[in-house]
Amino acid sequence: PILRLLEAQLQDERREHEEELEALKNQVDAMKEELEKQQQAFLQTLQLSPEAQVEFGLQQELTRLTNENLDLKELLEKLEKNEKKLKKQLKIYIKKVQDFEASQVAIPAERRQHERSMQVAVQRKEKDFQGMLEYYKEDEPLLIRNLIT
Q: In the prediction, which pLDDT does 143 show?
């Protein structure tokens, strides 16, 4: 059973590594394609006139900044959603704290009422136990003998 478990774990790890390797290969292929595109674009810009090179560079920079701007807008939206969620949670927690504090204020009043009733009950009980007596531990055998006789 232990050998089978270890074998299953090894197969799972092998499968995970193969999937990870495949994902990395795909990523490398995508990067190669992107590099080739950039090299072709660079070679084309070298063949252009200086004014056209500047215009192409500006176009590339404009595209890069536009993509970066879109990414930042997406991040901003995500952060705004997270902020709203956190504000809702904060309101819930504030309400829970207020409810807890209100219950803590109510509990002492209930306890005082309970303590008053306990005091009354204790006083009554003390009247019921007036026949009890106090003795020293050393006198216990003598008391028992006297009670039996």
A: 83
